[in-house]
Specification:
With about 425 residues, the chain is α+β, with helices and mostly antiparallel strands. The protein has helices at about 5-15, 20-55, 70-75, 90-95, 165-170, 215-225, 245-250, 265-275, 280-325, 325-335, 340-385, 395-415, 415-420, 425-430; strands at about 60-65, 100-110, 115-120, 120-125, 130-135, 145, 160, 180-185, 200-205, 215, 225-230, 240-245, 255-260, 280. It has 2 domains: about 5-55 and about 290-430, no CATH class; about 110-225, no CATH class. It has 14 helices and 14 strands. Strands 1, 2, 3, 4, 5, 6, 7, 8, 9, 10, 13 and 14 form a 12-stranded mixed beta sheet that branches. The chain has a two-stranded antiparallel sheet with strand order 11-12. The chain is elongated.
């Protein structure tokens, strides 16, 4: 009997007990949906993370810090120099720009000197908002909701504001209208006369929840508070006074380096470390997250595997019942020349059909679940200012693998009943009532 004939025979035999077959297939469907959806969620989340890093260039980024023991998450917030570690200055920037594998480099300067930002009569506090200054050469890339990125000409006062700031200023529904507006930056009172009020022009509105206010490195140095320090002096001589900015006293908080390719990241890291600075790479964060997702995937896959194991028990039960119901039929088949191998293969294929049906239906339902999840997540992404949509998908490799696995599970689960059917004595089977 050819395989195609065995498949058709198996399908016809399963149709005899529609309710029992449907319940068995349903059990397999539950397991298939569980495995497919869980693994798809993990792979989709990992893909979304990697895509986010690639959009901002963080997959090729290395952050050099004065401290030696910071990981990437900590280094991302390192914008202020507190005097600890090795000082970072312009000479350091030039040295790192010459390292092997470096495509571009910029110093990072914390510039959170302001209390509030105002547009006309509207104002919002930025005292707890990160303000970062950098060279607009592509090393730092921002996803924009409106406007354009910073350019070299913005040293005279061009800035980027976050989506949250734009919303607080009354431009939540029309952020594009904020672009080009002149804003007033009010200094913090604790700086006294060292800092003064500044005006700037909004060049763009940034996406993301971590962003605050961006400016060029040139403008960041301009707005830095200027402190006067006097030394010496006495009854008959005047003190010697010098003026220095906050940057002059502390230096840069960090340096962002962009490697030419992801393969150059390790080379850049080692170069930074040879200069005596801490180095943290975005690729390390991606790898750490990938490892976490792998562990989550294994756990979720294990839960789905338990569901498939229960389904396999159902397949065994169904095929054992089929063997008992068709004992006389098996005897007739053996009597007219069917070998044990033929009978065993027939029941194995029949069990495989159960697994195949459950896998196909489960994968189809998983695509429906993915569509439903995307409708829910798309709204949440939009509310968070993220432009990505339909991030949950069922990879074809997972879909094919799940169907193959459920089919294999069905065939393996059917081996015991198939062997039992093949070993029936033909004479006794013909006498069976």
């Amino acid at each position: 009997m050819r395989l195609g004939d065995q498949f058709r025979t198996g399908w016809r035999n399963l149709s005899r007990q529609k309710l029992r077959t449907s319940l068995t297939v349903f059990a397999i469907v539950i397991g298939a949906v569980s495995v497919t959806v869980m693994l798809s969620l993990v792979t989709s989340a990992q893909g979304f993370l990697t895509s986010s890093f690639e959009k901002t260039g963080e997959d090729r980024r290395v952050i050099a810090t004065p401290q030696l023991d910071l990981d990437y998450g900590e280094a991302r917030w390192q914008t202020w120099a507190d005097g600890s570690g090795k000082r970072i200055d312009d000479e350091t920037v030039r040295a790192m720009a010459g390292l092997d594998g470096v495509e571009s480099v910029t110093a990072i300067l914390g510039a959170s000197y302001f209390e509030a930002i105002r547009v006309g009569s509207s104002g919002v506090s930025v005292s707890n908002t990160p303000v970062v200054a950098y060279t607009p050469n592509g090393t730092v890339r921002r996803e924009l909701l409106a406007g354009r990125a910073l350019e070299a000409g913005d040293d005279s006062g061009g800035i980027l504001v976050s989506r949250a700031i734009a919303g607080d200023l009354g431009y939540a529904d029309n952020p594009q209208q904020l672009v080009g507006k002149t804003v007033t930056l009010t200094p913090r009172k604790e700086f006294g006369d060292a800092a003064r009020e500044r005006t700037a022009t909004v060049r763009g509105v940034m996406l993301g929840e971590d962003n605050g206010l961006d400016m060029t490195l040139g403008f960041g140095k301009v707005v830095s508070p200027v402190f006067e320090r006097c030394e010496g002096g006495g009854p008959n001589r005047q003190p010697v006074c010098t003026r220095e900015t906050d940057f002059d006293r502390t230096g840069y908080g960090a340096i962002y380096l962009s490697a030419r390719t992801t393969d150059d990241v390790t080379t850049v890291e080692r170069g930074v470390e040879r200069l005596g600075y801490g180095a943290a790479a975005g690729q390390e964060e991606i790898d750490a997250q990938a490892q976490a997702f792998t562990i989550i995937g294994l756990v979720l896959g294990g839960i789905g595997a338990i569901a498939l194991l229960v389904a396999a028990i159902g397949v065994i039960n169904t095929m054992v019942m089929a063997t008992l119901e068709r004992t006389r039929e098996i005897g007739i088949m053996r009597a007219i020349g069917a070998t044990k191998k033929t009978v065993r293969r027939l029941f194995t294929v029949e069990a495989g059909v159960l697994g195949f049906m459950g896998g196909v239906v489960g994968v189809i339902l998983s695509f429906g679940v993915a569509i439903l999840l995307n409708r829910i997540l798309n709204q949440q992404l939009a509310d968070s200012g993220i432009t990505d949509r339909d991030i949950v998908s069922v990879p074809p490799t997972i879909a094919v693998a799940v169907i193959a696995v459920t089919t294999l599970i069905g065939m393996l689960a059917g081996r015991l009943p198939a062997r039992r059917a093949a070993n029936l004595d033909p004479v006794e089977a013909l006498r069976y009532e």
